[in-house]
């Protein structure tokens, strides 16, 4: 079991804090929405109780998750999760934002806040993301953040919409630091 550290991260408009099962009520409407969940690895959730259980599993022995909240409101509008890989200096990042917050720049701000923490405070060497090749919004977000397309894994996931490929995007610490300077 890895030792977890999930500090509060403040950005211009957001406060990222540990995700907890009690965030279920705030995110359930989007997690139960077929359009929002189309590119997720599982079908939409069917109840708040199922959502509470799911959120309890998002933050497990290999993953940690930050709830995305507004600076002036502690209600979760999504989360950023980080999975530790390869002896801890490489990690995978994932993110979810409720439908009402789409197009607001909050996903970019939240993911950038966590990436900045990973590279500058934890000295991670590499961060990567795995997204569906048809998830144009996720790909655009990764590219705006400076991730580079690294490859395609064919037939990687069996999901509620069928067997799907994965697009892998990655970033190295020196690339992030150079872009932030």
Automatic annotation (TrEMBL):
Pfam families: Acetyltransf_3. This is GNAT family N-acetyltransferase. PANTHER family: GNAT FAMILY, PUTATIVE (AFU_ORTHOLOGUE AFUA_3G00765)-RELATED-RELATED, N-ACETYLTRANSFERASE DOMAIN-CONTAINING PROTEIN. InterPro entries: Acyl_CoA_acyltransferase, GNAT_dom, N-acetyltransferase. GO terms for molecular function: acyltransferase activity, transferring groups other than amino-acyl groups. Residues 14-168 form the N-acetyltransferase domain.
């Amino acid at each position: 079991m890895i030792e977890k550290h999930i500090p509060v991260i403040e950005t211009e408009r957001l406060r990222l804090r540990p995700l907890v099962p009690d965030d279920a009520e705030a995110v359930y409407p989007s997690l139960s929405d077929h359009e929002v969940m189309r590119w997720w690895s599982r079908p939409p959730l069917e109840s708040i109780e199922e959502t509470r259980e799911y959120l309890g599993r998002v933050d497990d022995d290999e993953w940690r998750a930050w709830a995305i909240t507004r600076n002036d409101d502690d209600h979760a509008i999504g989360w950023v999760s980080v999975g530790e890989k390869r002896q801890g200096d490489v990690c995978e990042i994932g993110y979810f934002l409720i439908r009402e917050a789409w197009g607001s720049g909050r996903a970019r701000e939240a993911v950038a806040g966590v990436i900045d923490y990973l590279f500058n405070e934890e000295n991670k060497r590499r961060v990567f993301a795995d997204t569906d090749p048809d998830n144009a919004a996720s790909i655009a977000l990764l590219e705006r953040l400076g991730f580079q397309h690294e490859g395609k894994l064919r037939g990687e996931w069996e999901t509620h919409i069928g067997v799907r490929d994965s697009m892998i995007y990655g970033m190295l610490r020196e690339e992030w630091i150079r872009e932030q300077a």
